[in-house]
Write a structure and sequence with these properties.
Elements: E1 28-32, E2 38-41, H1 43-49, H2 53-56, H3 71-82, E3 87-94, E4 100-111, E5 117-125, H4 132-146, H5 151-167, H6 173-181
Helix pairs in contact: 3-5, 4-5
Protein name: PAS domain S-box-containing protein
Length: about 180
């Protein structure tokens, strides 16, 4: 297995990159601290991400971030979690050993006895295959808006566009997501 490096220094995937698909019964689970550093990863996460437990423990979860994943979606995720709410999101990841994979993520705050958020818990599963093309198209538009801008500014611009785009359809991001997933 290749040594882990920062996501920014790994080679950019090509169109011919291999897709690693989750099985319908796969549940990918991680827990992170408030900064997004991995404190727990289940065997499915390790298998799908192509990493060992020692390689991911304490590392920022973005070590599997695919460069084609728009920052605006992560901005939405962190804003939602910062408000103490759960979020469902489509996420494109890149395994340490190169393949890309899509997940439908469910991220929730973990609270202590007093109700304070102390960590995050994420469970991911395979998204509907029919959902991926419209998600890919929407995310490509968001990435276009981010290109050439500082990271934070780009993420804010693409999230603003996403919000306006979905508002024009009378949908929130979560409503749009579930409209693509159909009956579960």
């Amino acid at each position: 297995m290749p040594a882990l490096t920062d996501v920014q220094t790994r080679p950019h995937p090509t169109e011919a990159a291999t897709e690693r698909r989750l099985a319908p019964d796969d549940l990918v689970v991680t827990k992170t601290d408030l900064r997004g550093h991995i404190t727990y990863a289940n065997e499915t996460f390790l298998r799908v991400s192509g990493a060992s437990e020692t390689e991911v423990a304490g590392r920022a979860h973005n070590l599997i971030r695919h460069p084609d994943m728009p920052g605006g979606v992560f901005r939405l995720m962190w804003d939602t979690l910062g408000a103490g709410e759960e979020i469902f999101a489509y996420v494109l990841n890149r395994a340490i050993d190169g393949p890309f994979y899509w997940v439908l993520a469910h991220v929730t705050p973990t609270r202590d006895r007093s109700g304070a958020v102390v960590a995050y818990h994420s469970t991911r599963r395979a998204p509907s295959r029919d959902a991926i093309p419209p998600v890919r198209d929407l995310y490509a538009r968001m990435r276009e808006l981010e290109r050439g801008r500082p990271r934070r500014e780009g993420a804010e611009a693409s999230l603003a566009w996403l919000t306006e785009h979905l508002d024009s359809q009378g949908l929130s991001y979560e409503e749009w997501l579930w409209s693509l997933e159909g009956d579960l």
